[in-house]
């Protein structure tokens, strides 16, 4: 199986689909909060909209819209995936 270069969620563009591989967060409270919101490994999310100044960004996670600041999404790693419906 070829290795995939993981990217930060904050680097994904609007409309892209992203599959989470890992959360690299040392702060246990923040990590628990993100996991509770649905940012779990294996989960597919969609980048909905970046604010006019670029921070925060809205994501679709399990049929819910959640906004994260860049400092939070910088610690979520995964890969961009293709949407077969496009």
UniProtKB/TrEMBL annotation:
Q: Which SMART domains match?
A: FeoA
Instruction: Read off the InterPro entries from this record.
Output: Fe-transptr_FeoA-like, FeoA, FeoA_core_dom, Transcriptional_repressor_C
The protein's UniProt keywords, in alphabetical order, are: Iron
Write down the Pfam families for this protein, in alphabetical order: FeoA
Entry keyword annotation includes Iron? yes
Q: Which GO terms describe its molecular function?
A: transition metal ion binding
Q: Which SUPFAM superfamilies match?
A: C-terminal domain of transcriptional repressors
Q: Where is the Ferrous iron transporter FeoA-like domain?
A: 7-80
Determine the domain of life of the protein's source. Bacteria
Which protein, by its recorded name, is this? Ferrous iron transport protein A
